[in-house]
Amino acid sequence: MRATTVSPANIAFIKYWGRRNHELFIPLSTTNSMNLSSCTATTTVEFSEEFGDSDTISISGQDGVSKTMELPFESVAGKDKKVKGRNSEQPPVVLDEKSAELFRTLERIRLLYSQENGGQLPAARVSSTLSFPMSAGIASSAAGISAFTAAGLVAAGLERYFEDKQELSRQVRKTGSASAARSVLGGFTELLVAGNKVDPGDIEAQDQSSYAAQIADENHWDLTDITVVTESSSKKVSSSKGHELAETSSLLNARIAYLEGKPEKARQAILERDFMTLAELAEADWINMFAVMMTSKPAVFYFNPGSIALYHKVQELRASGLEVFCTFDAGPNPHLICANSSLAQVRQALKDSDVAGFVSFTLESKPVAGTQLIEKI
Ligand code: PMV
Question: For residues 98 and 241, is the Cβ–Cβ distance under 8 A?
């Protein structure tokens, strides 16, 4: 039982920081985004008796950097990220939050399989290849997490969870990243959050209430995302930790009030291909979100001098009439969103102007299809 999928990362216009439900990874608010053609993960998941009693997950980047993690299956229950090695002489393995969620997802898939088929799934081998450098500090987990969840479900014979994209997006969200759930569908998508209408104590209703929907497909609007890598180190505070810290910010309630109506306005701007409205909404949104980050305890700063310089350069270019705006994920690398008419001049500015020294390298992406099944054996 083996399946291979490919799935893109995405860049959000209206973003989230902080969760409504940490167990189900439900964000505080509805978000929306564009998929990125140059940042994809191709992932194969195979379940076989031949793999003994351990699940193995290998991830490799386009830069040749790779990591392999191996754990006895049925050992990653609970919130404790420390799990035993293969035998008692080995020290416990400590996984980062997102990696631990990958192993927990294999357990979740095993449980779904047993509920549907009665039997037991054997060990899994997962191999994921990224189309971009792994060590580049590009917020890329959305690609890997969405491809992995989809391949795991299909390899387990649970195709109906893959075919139903709403359900697939819920499954991806529960692998630890609500932003990854937006990658399931093509082009421009949103992850809906029902908010206060759903009883917080009703876990099933909460889970059902948050899923991805398509705003417009990949052919709707020919925007380009230039991801400008200013720094290649991995981020100092993970988004998983940041979503918990958000609750300590005195500005979080102000952000929640601010967000009222914003996802709908951004959605409309995407549908109408209204570049300047989307630019204003998206830039105001990340600045508002960074204010929450910077006022949490401890404070989280993702900027570096290059991030600030590039922000100012983008303002200068837009004031001169170019259709470009910038946005940031939880990291120092700006995404410059450009209309086709301005692309050549923006590229030129990154090479020739006073910001050129801050640019390590760039990656250009277009809107692209969501999670695709490539092979099933
Ligand atoms: O879903 P996570 O844990 O990868 O966090 C995403 C956080 C942001 O990228 C800053 C916001 C977003 O909506 O993409």
Answer: no
